[in-house]
Design a protein that fits this description.
The chain is 42% helix and 22% strand. With 317 residues, the chain is an alpha/beta fold. The strands form 3 sheets. The protein has a 6-stranded mixed beta sheet with strand order 6-7-8-3-9-10, with helices on both faces. The protein has a 4-stranded antiparallel beta sheet with strand order 2-1-4-5, covered by helices on one side. A hairpin with a 2-residue loop joins strand 11 and strand 12. About 5% of the residues have low confidence.
């Protein structure tokens, strides 16, 4: 049995988890849901012994794991825990069997159980996302852990593959405790035995699906949850939203001022040009000169040049 008693966690004087008190059974699928920053992954890390709480205790079968030394904590990791990560954490240039052999060599039965035995000689970097996640699950359960911790195991997968992975986790939860951190409310309602809804580092509510599943309209529940999460997110980020609105308003006002100044400056230049050029009018005469005709009409006599020009007379000496 897993029990958290008055667990707090702080980072740089910021409270991440606030007075968590939960008791979980030895088997079943538990989903932890909530918006980003609500403390889901932090809670999972504390249960997994990756981090320690600032206050409070975490008990596994009445043993306070927060007080274990490094040697006993390693034993706790090896004996009780298995981890499945969203990013898989596999070694890409090794084959599937080589990745699993780093844990132990008894991988064939597990690969057959997960329907990926045919991939055992294939390199990880050649696998699809769903195949990589199956390999990650295989690695997580090779030690036959009592508790399997899954951090967003379907976050990077398409909907069809996500269903396949959740079916595997549901099957595994029949004989062990499987804790899944997820954003997918529909999967949580469909596969979980118990749901913990977190907000602002606290457990906002708990839902026992086993007892209430028949009375739950999953589509309606998911819609209500989505609206509630959206409203909570807006309320939690109120200060940031106000600052963004103010910044946006200042930007619009600044743009308006720049455009107004530009238009005013342009009008001022136009007025100045009109006032200046009006003092120097351009006059165009009605008469015109044809240079070619003037040249043709020139006559020479006794070294004198006479220009037959109807417009003006030049005296050339």
């Amino acid at each position: 049995m897993l029990r958290l008693k008055h667990v707090f966690k702080e980072y740089n004087n910021q409270s991440v988890l606030k007075d968590i008190n939960i008791t979980l059974p030895n088997k079943g699928l538990i989903s932890i849901v909530g918006v980003s920053g609500s403390g889901k992954s932090t809670l999972l890390n504390l249960i997994g012994g990756i981090d320690k709480p600032s206050k409070g205790s975490i008990f596994i079968n009445n043993v306070d794991v927060t007080k274990l030394n490094n040697k006993d904590l390693n034993w706790y990791h090896n004996k009780y825990l298995g981890f499945i990560f969203q990013s898989y954490n596999l070694i890409d240039y090794l084959s599937v069997k080589d990745n699993l052999s780093l844990i132990n060599n008894n991988y064939e039965l597990i690969l057959k159980k997960l329907n990926i035995y045919n991939l055992k000689d294939k390199k990880v970097n050649l696998l699809s996302g769903g195949e990589k996640q199956r390999v990650a699950i295989a690695r997580g359960i090779m030690k036959n852990p009592k508790i399997l911790l899954c951090d967003e195991p379907t976050g990077a997968l398409d909907s069809s593959t996500s269903v396949d992975i959740m079916n595997i986790l549901k099957e595994l939860s029949k004989d062990r405790l499987v804790i899944v951190v997820t954003h997918d409310m529909s999967l949580a309602h469909r596969y979980s035995d118990y749901i913990l809804h977190m907000q602002d580092g606290k457990i906002l509510n708990e839902l026992n699906i086993k007892d209430n599943y028949k009375n739950i309209d999953i589509g309606k529940s998911c819609k209500i949850k989505s609206h509630k999460l959206a409203n909570n997110h807006l309320n939690n980020k109120k200060k940031r939203n106000i600052l963004i609105s103010i910044s946006f308003a200042i930007g619009l006002i600044s743009l308006g001022l720049v455009l107004s100044i530009n238009q005013g400056f342009k009008k001022a230049i136009d007025i100045e040009e009109k006032n200046s050029l009006s003092k120097y009018p351009i006059i165009i005469n009605k008469d015109s000169n044809n240079i070619e005709d003037s040249l043709r009409n020139k006559e020479t006599d006794n070294n004198k040049v006479y220009s037959n020009d109807n417009n003006h007379i030049n005296i050339i000496t």
